[in-house]
Amino acid sequence: MRTSLSVPQDVLEAFDETWEAEGIDSRSRAVREAMQEYIERHTRLEEIEGDAVAAVAFDYEHTLVIEELHTVQHDFEDVIGTTQHMHRGEWCLETIFCSGPSGRIRELVYQLRDFDAVGRVNVMFLRPV
Fold first, then answer.
1. Does residue 70 sit in the same domain as residue 109?
2. Does residue 115 form part of some domain?
3. Would strands 80-88 and 118-125 be described as parallel, antiparallel, or unpaired?
4. What is the rounded distance in angstroms from the CA atom of residue 113 to the CA atom of residue 119?
5. Per-residue pLDDT at 73
6. Would you say which domain of life the source belongs to (predicted)?
7. Is the same domain home to 65 and 106?
8. What integer pLDDT is reported at residue 129 of this predicted model?
9. Structural domain tally of the chain?
């Protein structure tokens, strides 16, 4: 199936440099692999059940979203144990360490992803022993 995408030029250039450096055959192949990784990451987030321990890392443009992020963090204080925060100009990197019902952690991740001023949200779950 053929499709088209709108991608900022700088993102496309960085993507092309990456897949070419890895020796992948074509941009199409690289896009398929990226899509598969996205699906796997989303599926993992959806499949976690019961209590979980997770680190949620995200970056954001400070001045555009800080008040709303504080509200979200207060709304999820039942699962947020601690946070780490780092500034780099107007952009911030934050890691939230969570423990509790996986459904609540999932809700937190989805709320963070809803903000336009949040660049990326990545989740790492502690593997059960």
1. yes
2. yes
3. unpaired
4. 8
5. 94
6. Archaea
7. yes
8. 43
9. 2
Contact (Cβ atoms closer than 8 angstroms) between residue 108 and residue 123: no
Q: How far apart are CA 94 and CA 56, in angstroms?
A: 8
Strand order in the sheet with 91-101: 80-88, 91-101, 51-61, 118-125
Mean pLDDT for each consecutive 10-residue tract of the chain (129 residues)?
88 93 93 86 84 95 92 96 93 96 95 94 79
- Its domain, for residue 28, covers 9-44
Residue 4 located in a structural domain: no
In a domain? residue 117: yes
Nearest to 54 by CA among 111, 96, 82, 93: 96
How is residue 93 written in tokens?
A: 């990197």
- Number of neighbouring beta carbons within 10 Å of residue 68: 15
* Spatial separation of the C-alpha atoms in residues 80 and 99, rounded to whole Å: 7
Asked whether residue 57 falls in the same domain as residue 94, the answer is: yes
pLDDT at 40: 75
pLDDT of the residue at 128: 60
- Same domain for 115 and 71, yes or no, is yes
Of 95, 115, 111, the closest CA to residue 103 belongs to 111
Q: Measured between alpha carbons, how far is 96 from 73 in angstroms, rounded to an integer?
A: 9
